[in-house]
Amino acid sequence: MPPDRFLLAILVALACVPIGAEPQAQNTTPVRPTGGILGRPSPPQPVQKQGVEYFVGTWNFKWTGRESAFTPGPRTGTVTFTRLGDTPFLEFQANGTAEGVGAYTESGTLGWQATRQVVALHERLWGNVEILSVGDWSSPISIRFDSSPVRVKNQTLRLRRTYGIVSVSSFTVSEELSVDGGAFVRLGGGVFTKTSK
Questions:
Q1: What is the DSSP string of 19-33?
Q2: pLDDT for 45
Q3: Rounded distance, CA 110 to CA 92, Å?
Q4: Domain total for the chain?
Q5: Is residue 55 part of a domain?
Q6: How is residue 79 annotated by DSSP?
Q7: Would you tell me which of 91, 161, 191, 192 could form a disulfide with 145, CB atoms 3.0–4.6 Å apart?
Q8: pLDDT given at position 5
Q9: CA distances (Å), 116 to each of 124, 131, 173, in order?
Q10: 20 within domain boundaries
Q11: What is the mean pLDDT of the chain?
Q12: What is the pLDDT of residue 70?
């Protein structure tokens, strides 16, 4: 999808976010609990700044799960996120190897809307399936994505993902799949580790 069409898709997706739901100010001051192991205070947990800068660079990944129209099953590889000029958009390219399939590639565009803390993700996945997902990044520790319905092989599919923001150099992804409006069931999960900026 050309960047201008993707931008239009993001604006439409953002229109679905309730206007009255203004983001609340986040307290970035570490909270020091009074107790911990052996009665000592626990150290403050790091909080990553939300925005496209977090993803820029190259990440190694290992994903475990079952095959579906969205994924070739267990796989390993790298994904590189590249900023598009001085904009809140990134292009990404994933290259990897999947069990029983061999080499595969995926690509897409990620956009960030800071005021509403919304992420839009357009992807061209394995099997040439394209999906658009909208993510809520109002929590600094996770992004929750819901995809638009996609028709593949006479089935209507939806994907849900949760990105766990572990540290500046690591995040996890867990995925769930719904078929023909049924309950979401576990599809798989991955671990991503940054190798370069």
A1: TT-PPPPP--SPP--
A2: 64
A3: 8
A4: 1
A5: yes
A6: E
A7: 161
A8: 57
A9: 25, 22, 22
A10: no
A11: 86
A12: 87
| Band of pLDDT at residue 100, cut at 50, 70 and 90 | confident
Rg (CA), the chain: 18
The beta-carbon contacts of 8-17 under 8 Å, at least 24 apart in sequence, are: 9/120, 9/122, 9/132, 10/111, 10/113, 10/120, 13/118, 13/120, 13/132, 13/134, 14/113, 14/116, 14/118, 14/120, 14/134, 16/134, 17/116, 17/118, 17/134
Condensed to tens digits (0 to 9), the pLDDT of residues 52-78 reads 999 999 999 999 999 998 888 999 999
- Report the CATH number that the domain containing residue 74 is assigned in CATH: 2.40.128.20
Domain residue limits at 189: 3-13+50-196
Determine the pLDDT at residue 31: 47
Is residue 33 in a domain?
no
Tokens 């099953």 belong to which residue? 73
Contact 118, 139 (CB under 8 A): no
What's CA 193's distance to the chain center, in Å?
14
Question: How far is residue 67's CA from residue 88's CA, in Å, rounded to a whole number?
Answer: 32
| 27 lies in some domain | no
List of residues 6+ apart from 120 with CB closer than 8 A: 6, 9, 10, 13, 14, 110, 111, 113, 132, 133, 134, 135
